[in-house]
Amino acid sequence: MPGQVLTAQVNGGARVPILNLDCSGATVGFSGGQLTFDPVTASLTATAAGALNQAFNVTALTQGLVLGQATITYQLFAA
């Protein structure tokens, strides 16, 4: 499931894409009413990289820069 995007609301305004989430290497699990995807790789979008570079007055952050991996857990129902 590649191509998922995490967005954030900026200053109470519009939502903007901040992370691309790559689930292509993730395994899917289900236990105790929870659905999990692990690992999910998170990388900066062009929008986020530009905003962070401007905020910190740097040029080091680029689109596609991998920030790390996460586990996504979704509670479907109480166990």
Summarize the structure in words:
The chain is mainly beta and 79 residues long. It has one domain (4-75). 14% of the residues lie in helices and 51% in strands. The protein contains one helix and five strands, in the order E-E-E-E-H-E. The protein has one helix at residues 46-56; strands spanning 4-9, 15-22, 27-31, 34-44, 66-75. Strands 1, 2, 3, 4 and 5 form a five-stranded antiparallel sheet that branches. A hairpin with a 5-residue loop joins strand 1 and strand 2 (15-22). It is elongated. The model has no long low-confidence stretch (mean pLDDT 92).
Sum up the structure in keywords.
79 residues; mainly beta; five-stranded antiparallel beta sheet; 51% strand; elongated
Quote the average pLDDT: 92
Poorly predicted runs: none
Q: In one word, what is the shape?
A: elongated
**Multimerization state:** single chain
Helix-strand pattern, N to C?
EEEEHE
How many β-strands, per DSSP?
A: 5
**Helical residue percent?**
10-25%
Helix-strand category: mainly beta
Provide a compact summary of the structure:
The protein is built from one helix and five strands. With 79 residues, the chain is mainly β.
Blueprint of the fold:
Blueprint: E1 4-9, E2 15-22, E3 27-31, E4 34-44, H1 46-56, E5 66-75
